[in-house]
Backbone:
């Protein structure tokens, strides 16, 4: 009873001072409190409205549309939203993932190319040390194996990608939520 009261008090504090993204009850309240301290007190990723690990970096969060999970909660992620990133519902992002939505022009490195946003379909899993490059679109229930570099779009659903450059290495069955 006391534990539940303490947890609810922490969630209330986080909701009042951190906003709705910091009061998500699917995460342990003291984990969220730690993220709140890093972002709102120490101002590490202070411009990001959702919880982000202090070792991750999020650029231009206002151009990132996130689903039910928070990109950058795993350690060491680099999420560059300058050209936009759309992350649908239930997308799991592992540690040290790079989502790079903007690239330099090939004939003038001081200019950037305008491309379509990165789009990751619902019920997908992006494995550790994965890099997803500008304009890539992934379909529903796509699993990207650890260390893969995704250079082109895969709009198919129920597939596993791997390698450098990434290619389809396996077809899988439909996602089965609990």
Residues:
């Amino acid at each position: 009873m006391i534990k539940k009261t303490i947890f609810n008090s922490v969630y209330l504090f986080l909701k009042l001072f951190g906003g709705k993204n910091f009061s998500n009850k699917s995460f342990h309240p003291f984990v969220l409190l730690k993220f709140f301290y890093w972002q709102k007190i120490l101002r590490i990723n202070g411009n990001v409205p959702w919880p982000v690990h202090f070792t991750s970096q999020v650029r231009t969060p206002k151009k990132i549309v996130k689903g039910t999970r928070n990109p950058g909660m795993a350690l060491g992620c680099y999420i560059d939203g300058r050209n936009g990133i759309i992350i649908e519902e239930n997308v799991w992002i592992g540690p040290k993932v790079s989502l790079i939505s903007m690239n330099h022009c090939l004939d003038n490195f001081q200019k950037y190319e305008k491309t379509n946003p990165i789009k990751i379909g619902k019920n997908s899993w992006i494995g550790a040390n994965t890099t997803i490059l500008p304009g890539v679109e992934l379909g529903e229930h796509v699993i990207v194996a650890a260390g893969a570099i995704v250079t082109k779009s895969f709009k198919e659903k129920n597939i596993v990608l791997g390698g450098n450059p990434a290619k389809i290495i396996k077809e899988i069955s439909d996602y089965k939520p609990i």
Remarks:
- Residues 66 and 117 are 13 Å apart (CA to CA).
